[in-house]
Amino acid sequence: MTARIGVVVFPGTNCELDVEYAIQQLGGHTERLWHGDDTTKGVDAVVVPGGFAHGDYLRTGAIARFSPVMHAVGEHAAAGGPVVGICNGFQVLCEADLLPGALQKNAGLKFLCEPAALRVETTSTALTNLAEVGAVLNVPINHFEGNYVCDERTLAELQADERIVVRYVDNPNGSLDDIAGICNAQGNVVGLMPHPERASDPLLGSSDGIVLLKSLIAAATARSTLLV
Amino acid sequence: MAEASNAQPLHRQLGMTDAELAAVVDELGREPTHLELAMYSVMWSEHCSYKSSRAFLSRFPTQAPWVLVGPGEGAGVVDIGDGMAIAVRIESHNHPSAVEPYQGAATGVGGIIRDIFSMGARPIALMDPLRFGTLDDARTRYLFEGVVSGISGYGNSVGVPTVGGEAVFDDTYRGNPLVNVFCLGILPTERLVLARADGPGNLAVLLGSATGRDGIGGASVLASQSFEAGDEAKRPSVQVGDPFEEKRLIEACLELLDAKLAVGVQDLGAAGLSCAASETAAKAGAGMDVDVARVSKREPGMNAVEALTSESQERMLAIIEPANLDAVLELAKRWEIRATVVGRVTDTARFRIYDGLFDAIGVPGENPRPPIGDEPTPLNSDALPIADVPVESLGDGPLYHRPVARPATQDALQAADPGPQLRDKFPAGADLSAELLALLATPTIADKTWVSRQYDHQLFLNTVAGPGADAAVLRVKGTKKALALSTDGKARFCRLEPRTGGRLVVLEAARNVACSGARPIALVNCLNFGNPEHPEVMWQFSEVVEGMSEACEALGIPVIGGNVSFYNASGDDDIHPTPVAGVLGLIDELNERPPAAAVRARDDIVVLGAIRPELGGSEWAAVVHGLDGGMPPVADLERARAVHDLVATFVREGAVTGVHDVSDGGLGVALAEMAIAGEVGMKVELNFDGCTPAEACFAEPASVVVLSVDPQETAAVCGQAAAAGVPARVIGVAGGDRLIAKGAFDVSVADATHAWRDALPALMNRPH
Question: Is B459 within 8 Å of A56 when comparing Cβ atoms?
Fold first, then answer.
């Protein structure tokens, strides 16, 4: 059975088409998950893509966490299913307590859309299992609120348990400890600010995100095999 | 001041002349009601009716076999083959942005996006040609920062990438910045819809935001009058944008059209509901009844005039068959947008407004709950219309043939050639290094990453070349094709000689598109001018239209849409005539990224086209040395076409590794930009007949392109150029870390890079 990757859409999400396109180009199968439905339709992995869920009103991700689908995503994650939040999706996962910490406004108080060099720090996650530790990937960022913060104890835990997944080589937004992406204790839930789908074709300037998306497809496939 | 204006009769308060009122009375055979007068005042405003410009706009060539929709609709549409079509439009939002930069720019973006998806196209790209005063002025920095934030805040959130644009700085725009917005959408050709209210009995459904008191009289008060000091009082005429509402509207409307649930869709822009409802009916030769009680209002106490002319954002009007109403309401509910039946198509050819009729006579739908503080509208099946006018008369505004006069100062301006003075100051042998660095640091030429990094320019995974490239290049997924886009304006040339200037604006945009390997297939223009009641402004306008038309004809580019913005002035100082051209090019087959505007080490550097000592209106003469007179460069249309075809062929065939057009700052700046981008120096000789080294470096002749060419290809490239009758000269070779033009300048690539890259951030990060 072919693994299926669910892509969550809230009103205001805008990267769903891109994530689906990039995954499909790599041979993956996607399925749209609507925010108002309390189900992940039995998919093997979930992506919460970027955009402005519910307009980012109140606070990024603050309303999205209450959408019915997030309950189902939480159950999927608790059962060990891979979940990846990209950009706004990372913010939603933090608000939903699937990941610790929060994303606040960039240090320069400006929106930033530009290439970023990321260093892979661990391969024990749903998003990096095919990458190499220390590899530097060129993957664009596109956010106003990407400045990762958490309390000291959480940071110590993230560091000690190797849960910092990717770091910025040249910190663009003031993130604590250069954090660009983190994971939960099991490594099946990953959030990152950069957009791997935007680095998935040489025609667009970088294909460094492919290894990340392939890792996700591999995690989904492993999960589907496990369940069968 | 308020007392004085209240003493005016109502029609003048609304911006209408006595003669226009007389025309309304003549049309109706009676005095208009307040509501009728309010509708005529906005529909007959300069902004909506083009009453001063219409007589000239018919000059533009608009025909080509691939044009599906020309000027006069929400957007122009061209067929690109493979069952796909492209919709494009450009608009100005100048005055709102001068009053409130963030919201002014944001709502400009929102408005143009609605124009695009009202045609059935998914908006996939924005471009923003911007013009401001000089950045030494704190208020200008505030306006610039606010406008960029507004575009960023709205465009990023609504989910349409901003893939390019311009930022030009000139004192002429100090009191009146220009915020032009270009949008492009893509659609399956079969989804194309026009805003037509066909079929009596069909329903007009208002989708999106509730209607508030924001933007009342925006078209007549803000867009169609000159600007005065203290115009912050006009703030209530500026609308406030909500990109989240718009994002849901886009998705809902495209779903509506995909499911074939709508006969036509029209956005509510200038003049609000009165314009959208009457226009859709007039275009179908039908009539329309509207019940103002059906309009969802944001605040209590709103009267019919306010509800009908409000320019509240994020609203669309869909014309649907009654049988589809339930499906439309269900779809709207899923996307969490309001949907209310506000009108009914009739066969009366009248535009009639009622208050409380529809519920009483059983028109499908129901009155929305009134805002807290308002009583429900009493039902009355015998209600008489509160406005009742021939539907065509609203859109058929007055047509003015305004006086046209060449300015008395024009001869003196043209005679003030900067050439002799600059020749004296910079004779052959003068060191031009400092001049080059100064030019690279002028805000118009300097690196604009400070702006473009604030815009999402990558969404939809189409952006092959983005901000900073000569033209933005977007792939068309599912095909081999790609699109090239460029917006350009050159007001100083137009001021010196508007007909030539009009030609040069078209040539530059077309040249940029050619540099990406595309052939131009459509042009839209945004014509920003001063007060049309000044005969000199109308002369500039008529000449620019003529020049742009000549260039479009010569290059075979149809004009498929445009926008005219008059009254750009502060007090009596009209802005320089500023036409902006947006050219769409098509690349039939894109297999790899087109060459960048960069040189590659060890490549030959080839100049295509003729270098002439044309300093009039150049950045070097006007900005660096304050000499803004003279004549603009020659605009040889035949030569331009030959150069464009040649360059596009070179790019398509992969014959060159780098390509960049010569524009602001001349050949010297073009070479420096290519060295900066390629991170490599060069050694060149700039010996051109009739030019001092300074003129060769900094003149801005038209139709000149710099190529970086593999030495093995140089002979072939020069041979092809000769065959096409285009001059081509190898001026040197790339290499090393210095930018050296023998007898002209010698600077390190690092210094050039710093000058170019640091200028804008340094200006913008200083305290207000």
Answer: no
Q: Are B239 and B214 contacting, i.e. CB atoms less than 8 angstroms apart?
A: yes
B122, pLDDT greater than 70: yes
- What percentage of chain B carries pLDDT values higher than 70? 96
List chain A residues with pLDDT less than 50.
none
CATH number given to A4-227: 3.40.50.880
Q: Interior CA angle at B71 toward B69 and B73, to 5°? A: 70
Residues of B in Cβ contact (< 8 Å) with A203: 464, 475, 590, 592-593
Same domain as B338, residue B431 = no
Distance between A200 CA and the closest CA of chain B, angstroms: 9
Do B359 and B501 share a domain, yes or no? Answer: no
Same domain, B350 and B383: yes
CB < 8 Å & 24+ apart, contacts of B376-379: B377/B293
Tell me whether residues B248 and A113 touch, CB distance under 8 A.
no
Q: In the predicted model, what is the mean pLDDT of chain B?
A: 94
- Is the Cβ pair A113, B464 closer than 8 Å? no
- Which chain A residue has its CA at the smallest distance from B476's CA? A203
Helix A210-227, helix A16-25: angle, nearest 10: 80
Indicate the domain borders of chain A.
Answer: 4-227
* A29 Rama class: left (phi>0) / alpha (psi -120 to 50) / beta: beta
> How crowded is the C-beta side of B672, counted as CA atoms within 13 Å?
36
pLDDT bracket for residue B270 (50, 70, 90):
confident
Residues in chain A with CB shorter than 8 Å from the CB of B208 are none
Residues 451-470 of B with CB under 8 A from A: 452-461, 463-464
Residue B653 maps to a domain: yes
Q: How many domains does chain B have?
A: 2
Specify whether B360 is located in the same domain as B432: no
pLDDT score at B6: 55
Residue B355 structural domain: 1-58+194-397
Is the per-residue pLDDT at B662 higher than 90? Answer: yes
Say yes or no: B265 and B286 in one domain: yes
pLDDT at B234 over 90: no
Inter-chain touch B156–A52, beta carbons under 8 Å: yes
A107 reaches B (C-beta below 8 A): no
Chain A interface includes B333 (CB < 8 A): no
Instruction: Provide, as residue numbers in chain B, all residues whose Cβ is less than 8 Å from the Cβ of A205.
Output: 593
Residues B428 and B355 in one domain: no
Q: Is residue B68 part of a domain?
A: no
Look at residue B514 and tell me if it is in a domain.
yes
Q: Which of chain B's residues have a Cβ under 8 Å away from the Cβ of A113? A: 156, 452-458
Residues of chain B positioned with their CB less than 8 A from the CB of A146: none
Find all residues with CB under 8 Å of A29, minimum gap 6, and list them: A2, A3, A4, A5, A23
Q: Do A11 and B336 touch (CB under 8 A)?
A: yes
Gap between the Cα atoms of B160 and A14, Å rounded: 9
Instruction: Give pLDDT, residue B47.
Output: 86
Q: How far is A178 from chain B (nearest CA, A)?
A: 20
ipTM of the complex: 0.96
**B637-653 vs B535-555: helix crossing angle, rounded to 10:** 50
Beta bridge partners of B166: B129
* CATH number of domain containing B286: 3.90.650.10
Active site residues of B: 47, 93
* pLDDT level of residue B378 (50, 70, 90 thresholds): confident
